[in-house]
């Protein structure tokens, strides 16, 4: 998906849907888009929204109200999924809501929050939570939340690594000589691209020296963040390069690079021109 209008329509439709089952609903509205692309757009837009509203939705007063709703629902023997329903009601993702409820549950008498390490440990292993109902409700939240929480993070990391390995295999099939991130770190580099080409290649007439793999969708905000944190460092050290957003990107991203040449594609180009290493 590189068309800006299609991206805007997808994003606008997203905000009209509840947290749960959004991917299935978007699939019906945009059948031409892959599930992975839709998941990336949903995750990134959700994170933007949470950045703006998380503080307001997790004040001590708001959390107290949510905690009382939860405990009352337990007393009334409501069916499981209490926190999931509360998540839809208040506009907080399931995992973030569960984390707030856990913090309130373990709050000390002086109303100080429990240690972050304790809360993180309980989120990673809900069997350690001392309340059976809260443990099960938290577990359901973590299963449902595709943007936040340990399961979501593990899935993102696994997906990222999967596409890095896929990129290496494609380069090997194309007989391209390269060093990957682990090799570069062994050589003492701190900020390293996923792939440093030992012999540069040309793509659409442009010579590139490195490739960065991103198993996500590239919108302007995401791309600007990567430019600041990673890509410009690679450009300064290694020269022109290529970023692959495997699940698509909005058009005209390359225009924000100014004079620094960083190509953007959604797959490894098949028209690479290999330089003759014997010349």
From TrEMBL:
Pfam families: TPD. Signal peptide: none annotated. Keywords: Cytoplasm, Nucleus. It is found in: Cytoplasm; Nucleus. GO terms for cellular component: cytoplasm; nucleus. This is CDAN1-interacting nuclease 1. It comes from Daphnia magna.
């Amino acid at each position: 998906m590189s068309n800006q209008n299609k991206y805007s329509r997808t994003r606008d439709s997203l905000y009209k849907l509840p947290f749960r089952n959004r991917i299935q609903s978007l699939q019906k509205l945009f059948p031409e888009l892959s599930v992975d692309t839709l998941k990336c757009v949903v995750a990134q837009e959700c994170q933007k929204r949470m950045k703006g509203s998380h503080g307001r939705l997790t004040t001590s007063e708001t959390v107290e109200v949510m905690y009382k709703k939860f405990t009352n629902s337990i007393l009334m023997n409501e069916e499981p999924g209490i926190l999931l329903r509360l998540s839809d009601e208040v506009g907080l993702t399931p995992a973030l809501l569960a984390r707030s409820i856990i913090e309130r549950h373990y709050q000390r008498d002086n109303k100080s929050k429990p240690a972050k390490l304790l809360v993180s440990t309980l989120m990673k292993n809900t069997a350690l939570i001392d309340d059976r109902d809260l443990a099960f409700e938290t577990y359901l939240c973590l299963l449902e939340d595709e943007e936040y929480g340990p399961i979501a993070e593990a899935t993102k990391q696994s997906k990222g690594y999967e596409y890095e390995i896929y990129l290496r295999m494609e380069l090997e099939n194309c007989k391209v000589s390269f060093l990957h991130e682990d090799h570069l770190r062994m050589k003492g580099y701190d900020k390293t691209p996923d792939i440093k080409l030992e012999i540069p290649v040309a793509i659409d007439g442009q010579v590139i020296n490195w490739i960065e793999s991103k198993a996500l969708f590239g919108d302007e905000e995401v791309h600007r963040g990567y430019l600041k944190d990673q890509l410009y460092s690679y450009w300064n050290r290694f020269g022109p390069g290529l970023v692959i957003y495997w699940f698509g990107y909005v058009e005209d991203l390359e225009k924000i690079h100014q004079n620094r040449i960083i190509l953007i594609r959604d797959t490894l180009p098949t028209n690479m021109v290999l330089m003759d290493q014997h010349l």
